[in-house]
């Protein structure tokens, strides 16, 4: 039986994340809220989140081949993963980022 992630969890290494957003759109704002809430609740300080507006930094978005917004890139720990959307499916995001319960 799965236990809920209601306590501080951990990852093997500090998570290095970049969230690409399209200005202040509602989907972008929802993605920012969701990832900040999830990381703040589960990881405390075991993450580094950079939020990048593709309108202000189109060259960075092009460098990372960002086509959809919002897009979250997990750079570390490997393997690199890209999640697209508002990140509202909490369990899917937790699994994709490799977050595990402290037990």
From TrEMBL:
- State the PANTHER family in the record: CIRCADIAN CLOCK PROTEIN KAIB2 (PTHR41709:SF2), KAIB-LIKE PROTEIN 1 (PTHR41709)
Q: CDD domains per the record?
A: KaiB_like (cd02978)
Boundaries of each KaiB domain copy? 18-99
**UniProt-listed Pfam families:** KaiB (PF07689)
Q: What is this protein called?
A: Circadian clock KaiB family protein
Organism whose genome encodes this protein: Sediminicola luteus
């Amino acid at each position: 039986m799965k236990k809920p992630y209601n306590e501080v969890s951990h990852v093997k290494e500090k998570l290095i994340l970049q969230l690409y957003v399209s200005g202040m759109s509602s989907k972008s704002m929802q993605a920012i809220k969701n990832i900040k809430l999830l990381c703040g609740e589960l990881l405390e300080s075991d993450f580094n989140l950079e939020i990048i507006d593709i309108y202000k930094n189109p060259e960075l978005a092009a460098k990372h081949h960002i086509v959809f917004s919002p897009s979250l890139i997990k750079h570390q720990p490997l393997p690199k993963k890209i999640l697209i959307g508002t990140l509202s499916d909490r369990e899917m995001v937790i699994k994709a980022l490799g977050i595990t319960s402290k037990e």
